[in-house]
Amino acid sequence: MRNFGLVGASEFTNVSGYVGSIAGENFGVMVNVFSYATLNSNTGTGGIVGANYGGSAVIVNSYFAGSINTSGSAGGIAGANEGTISRSISAGAVRSTDGWAGGIVGFNTDSSSFGGSIGKIVDSYATGSVTAFRGNGGGGLAGAADPATSIIN
Questions:
Q1: Element (H, E) at 79
Q2: CA gap 58, 23 in Å, rounded
Q3: Are 32 and 59 in contact (CB under 8 A)?
Q4: b or e along 69-100 (b: 16 or more beta carbons within 10 Å of the residue's beta carbon)?
Q5: Residues 6+ apart with CB under 8 A from 84
Q6: CB of 67 closer than 8 Å to CB of 93
Q7: Is the whole-model pTM more than 0.85?
Q8: Beta 142-145 vs 125-126: how paired, if at all?
Q9: pLDDT tens digits, residue range 91-114?
Q10: Whether the Cβ atoms of residue 96 and residue 72 lie closer than 8 Å to each other
Q11: Could you read off the pLDDT of 21-72 as tens digits, one per residue?
Q12: Minimal CA–CA distance to 12: which of 2, 4, 21?
């Protein structure tokens, strides 16, 4: 997907999968995508995608400036990431009442021992607020990160 954007509000309740304003799950390449959506959900939620899955999952030059309110893991770009997020910005507010919350990703994960890949965040930043409750992690870039994952520049 290239050169695509969304402006508006979305509410997802009783969802069993991931939620994102552009896609619930990304297994491919997204370039120059943006969202100004307001997302309210009860599951893992990302401003652009709910989950960025696998070594071929890449998000480049993305921008999120909406808001997220969820009870799952939440990130300004992706709720969960085991792909690559590069040159992306989140200026949105991220809030999770019962999961990890991060400015870029909620959970930067390593599933390489299961045949998956390792999450990477490169040349990206966040300026929005991040709020996490119930003792779960909250971070400016990642709410939680497996040891093998990387955040560069």
A1: strand 78-81
A2: 13
A3: no
A4: bbbbbbbbbbbbbbbbbbebbbbbbbbbbebb
A5: 52, 57, 58, 59, 119, 120, 121, 122
A6: yes
A7: yes
A8: unpaired
A9: 999 999 999 999 999 999 998 877
A10: yes
A11: 999 999 999 999 999 999 999 999 999 999 999 889 999 999 999 999 999 9
A12: 21
Q: Which amino acid, one-letter code, is at 18? A: Y
Please say whether the dihedral angle defined by the alpha carbons of residues 82, 149, 144 and 77, taken in this order, is positive or negative. Answer: negative
Tokens of 45: 């939620």
Can you read off the two tokens belonging to residue 10? 């979305």
**Cβ atoms of residues 95 and 101 within 8 Å:** yes
Residue 23's region, left for phi above 0, alpha for psi from -120 to 50, else beta, is beta
Q: Identify residue 144 by its one-letter amino acid code.
A: A
The residue to which tokens 């969202």 are assigned: 35
Bridging pattern class, strands 105-108 and 120-122: unpaired
Burial classification of residue 8, based on how many CB atoms lie within 10 Å of its CB (0-12 exposed, 13-18 middle, 19 or more buried): exposed
